[in-house]
């Protein structure tokens, strides 16, 4: 195999991965609380694809591979829904969700109430307050969620607020260590603890839209496609060069 | 080329989004209609390199991983149960609920359904029924030749009987509430049925215990806001187009590979 072919191949593979990431961003352009991903690449030095046990080491060839996908945690636009159970978070905090696999974190504040009166996410997992799940009574009305996450209701014919709990808001020293789990959920890496967040604010009646920027993604996509086709063309030229060389050299005059 | 399939999930999601939006717009003038929205979530990720994995023999740890997502899924179409605006109709048997609660309707098979549409009528026997002829609960029969039907905030229905000058109470329209209204199951005809997600129905009286009050000669309009729906529709359409663009980009890349060596 030719080194050039292999180097080109390594680049093409990373470009395909890059398009996969762009495709996932574009697919989630309407997903509440979604954060876009970016691909990062690094040079990867290897010996050429043939014997290199000479006295003097051979010059090394640089390949490329993807080093990481970086989460872009910038805030998405807020949309007013006027739904009392929708919350958007101003700041870096996450809501804490109780799933079968343990604690998970989300920015998706499109919340619901289940048949037991618990505050849950769209997929039905309880959203945790500072002292466990938040439960409403059947006669509760006028749910009010304050900026600090305090949840109060008017119970029955009561004229005064009854407290139902306080949303637990957490943040992380390095949010890049969070792993996307799907279902708008993140899990914290091993040994990484969620810190209570006191600076973020909750806004009731709003949801945070996806922070995917369509113009960015489209231009990135064009760039990926063009680069990919260029490499294909380059490899083809290299292939033609070889073929011509073989034909010419083998053309022994009679 | 995973991107092809990822973008396909995006297109499918936006298609559903447009369906939900168009249903909202179609029901813009439906009495007591409650709008829906499509809720999306990202699909499972392929952790090609997991964050926190060991990166070398010296025990260094990957600060960021490589996660490749597989697209988007629809998690549900939650209904927004906010109050719609009341519009006066001048019709005595039109009732709107201002606040919590649903009218309870008895279906032909004896089961109950619930609605916010209070445009009632009288059938041949004088019963107060919905447009489909199903009696509102508890069943109220209005005596013949009575006049001046009045429904107060508690839902008490009074009439003036022939030969009398004082109102007579003939029945009371009840209300039913649920802990999770958004979990009700729509069955068409402006009706909902209870589900495990909505919780059990709790019957009660309007204007007491946190139930809303009744407004005679008014109807509750749909809570659809046209401006919001149209802007959502434009966004959904653009998102669909962009996902289609990704499909053609992936296709172009595959084509360039297959055309490499002629």
What does this structure look like?
Chain B: This is Flagellar basal-body rod protein FlgG. Chain B: Belongs to the flagella basal body rod proteins family. Chain B: It is found in: Bacterial flagellum basal body. The complex is a heterodimer of chains A (254) and B (262). Chain A has 254 residues and is an alpha+beta fold. Chain A has 2 helices and 19 strands. Chain A folds into 2 domains: 103 residues, no CATH class; 131 residues, no CATH class. Helices cover 24% and strands 33% of the residues of chain A. In chain A, the strands form 8 sheets. In chain A, strands 6-5-14-17 form a 4-stranded antiparallel β-sheet, with no helix packed on it. In chain A, strands 11-12-13 form a 3-stranded antiparallel β-sheet, with no helix packed on it. In chain A, strand 9 and strand 10 form a beta hairpin. In chain A, helix 1 packs antiparallel against helix 2. The mean pLDDT of chain A is 88. With 262 residues, chain B is α+β, with helices and mostly antiparallel strands. Chain B has 2 domains: 102 residues, no CATH class; 136 residues, no CATH class. Helix content of chain B is 22%, strand content 28%. Chain B contains 2 helices and 19 strands. In chain B, the strands form 8 sheets. A 4-stranded antiparallel β-sheet of chain B has the order 7-8-16-15, with no helix packed on it. In chain B, strands 11-12-13 form a 3-stranded antiparallel β-sheet, with no helix packed on it. Chain B has a two-stranded antiparallel sheet with strand order 1-4. In chain B, helix 1 runs antiparallel to helix 2. Chains A and B meet through helix 1, strand 1, strand 2, strand 7 and strand 15 of A and helix 1, strand 1, strand 2, strand 3 and strand 4 of B.
């Amino acid at each position: 195999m030719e080194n050039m072919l292999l180097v080109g191949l390594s680049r093409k593979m990373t470009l395909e991965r890059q398009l996969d990431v762009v495709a996932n961003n574009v697919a989630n352009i309407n997903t509440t609380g979604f954060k876009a991903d970016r691909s990062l690449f690094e040079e990867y030095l290897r010996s050429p694809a043939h014997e290199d046990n000479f006295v003097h080491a051979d010059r090394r060839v640089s390949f490329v591979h993807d080093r990481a996908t970086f989460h872009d945690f910038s805030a998405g636009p807020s949309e007013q829904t006027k739904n009392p159970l929708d919350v958007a978070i101003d700041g870096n905090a996450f809501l804490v969700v109780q799933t079968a696999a343990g604690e998970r974190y989300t920015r998706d504040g499109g919340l619901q109430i289940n048949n037991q009166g618990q505050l849950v996410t769209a997929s039905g997992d309880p959203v945790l307050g500072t002292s466990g799940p938040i439960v409403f009574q059947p006669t509760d009305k006028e749910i009010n969620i304050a900026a600090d996450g305090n949840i109060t209701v008017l119970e029955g014919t009561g004229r005064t607020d009854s407290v139902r709990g306080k949303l637990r808001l957490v943040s992380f020293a390095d949010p890049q260590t969070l792993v996307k789990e799907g279902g708008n959920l993140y899990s914290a890496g091993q040994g990484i603890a969620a810190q209570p967040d006191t600076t973020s604010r909750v806004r009731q009646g709003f949801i945070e839209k996806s922070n995917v920027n369509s113009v960015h993604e489209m231009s990135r996509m064009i760039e990926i496609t063009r680069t990919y086709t260029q490499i294909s063309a380059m490899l083809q030229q290299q292939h033609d060069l070889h073929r011509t060389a073989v034909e010419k050299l083998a053309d022994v005059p009679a | 080329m995973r991107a092809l399939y990822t973008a396909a999930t995006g297109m499918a999601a936006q298609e559903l989004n447009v369906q939900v939006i168009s249903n909202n717009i179609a029901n813009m003038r439906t009495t007591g209609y409650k709008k829906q929205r499509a809720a999306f979530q990202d699909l499972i990720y392929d952790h090609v390199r997991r964050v926190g994995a060991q990166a070398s023999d010296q025990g260094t740890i990957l600060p960021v991983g490589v996660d490749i997502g597989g697209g988007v899924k629809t998690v549900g179409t939650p209904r927004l149960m906010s109050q719609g605006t009341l519009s006066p109709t001048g019709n005595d048997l039109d009732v709107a609920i201002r606040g919590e609660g649903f009218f309870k309707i008895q279906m032909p098979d004896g089961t109950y359904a619930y609605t916010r549409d209070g445009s009632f009528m009288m059938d041949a026997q004088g019963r107060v029924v919905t447009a489909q002829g199903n009696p509102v609960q508890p069943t109220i029969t209005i005596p013949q030749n009575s006049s001046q039907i009045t429904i107060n905030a508690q839902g008490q229905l009074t009439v003036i009987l022939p030969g009398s000058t004082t109102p007579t109470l003939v029945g009371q329209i009840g209300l039913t509430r649920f802990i999770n209204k958004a979990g009700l199951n729509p069955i068409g005809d402006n009706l909902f049925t209870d589900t495990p997600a909505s919780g059990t129905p709790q019957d009660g009286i309007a204007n007491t215990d946190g139930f809303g009050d009744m407004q005679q000669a008014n109807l509750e309009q749909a809570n659809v806001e046209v401006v919001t729906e149209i802007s959502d529709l434009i966004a959904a359409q653009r998102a669909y187009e962009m996902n289609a663009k990704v499909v053609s980009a992936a296709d172009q890349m595959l084509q360039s590979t297959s055309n490499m060596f002629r």
